[in-house]
Amino acid sequence: MLDLMLTPLIAALVILAINAYFGLHVIKREVIFVDLAFAQIAVLGATTAMLLGTDPGEPASYLYTFLFTLLGSVIFSLTRLEKSRVPQEAIIGITYVVASAAVILLSSFTAEGAEHVEETLTGSLLWITWPTVVKITIAYVIIGLFHYLLRGKMLDITFRPERVKGLRLWDFIFYLTFGIAITFSVTHAGVLLIFSTLVIPATIAFFFTANFGKALLIAWGTGAVATVLGLLTSFQWDLATGPVLVCSYGLVLILAGVVRRFQRVKEREGEEVVAGIN
User: Fold this and answer.
1) Model's pTM, two decimal places?
2) Which of 2, 179, 207, 278 has CA 20 to 30 A from 135's CA?
3) Are the C-beta atoms of 177 and 154 separated by less than 8 Å?
């Protein structure tokens, strides 16, 4: 069983490594569903490529996916700064709905349309190959190195945007690298798992700390636990890998919430004792 699990396990952990980082930015920006919209836009690109006769994993498929996420980067970087009574979250939601409808519509023109739509949601992580894992890893290392070298600027555009000159351009760069990351993983992991690895570990991390570095470590740790637990459950009970992983992330979130609740109770009790002594 370990031999069969190893490839999807490494792939899931690699995807988690970059998504947890982007998820912290997404949570702090309060654009929670931008990752769902981005993932669906990427799927729309892959679906368009499939309709034109390109198989998933081919360079042309990645190119179409990238071009669609490039469009998403432009949309999200521009709408963040617009002064409007319509919040950016509304634009994000509309983008997601339209992209989802377009995927369903385009899929209906293919013989495997229904299967394709299901796969876009749940992914096919179980069947991922080592060459694909290596390809994703290389892309993510490059993206991670880029963000590390520019970490001051990347943190500023999320946490201190008022300090950044040329914010619109830097925001576009952020979303572009975010879109490239999703381009390499969404067809394998699926929209639901991409959303889970982006938002749930970051949410757990911010339960316990506001420090970005510590939050990233917590996100990686809890995400790794959820990944291992989900894959073990999937293989042990012969269940669909993608949905089980998503449920595993949800379970870890619930457990973290319970732990944080107990911590808060103890903190209040400690404050009451100190107040009583004083």
Assistant:
1) 0.90
2) 2
3) no
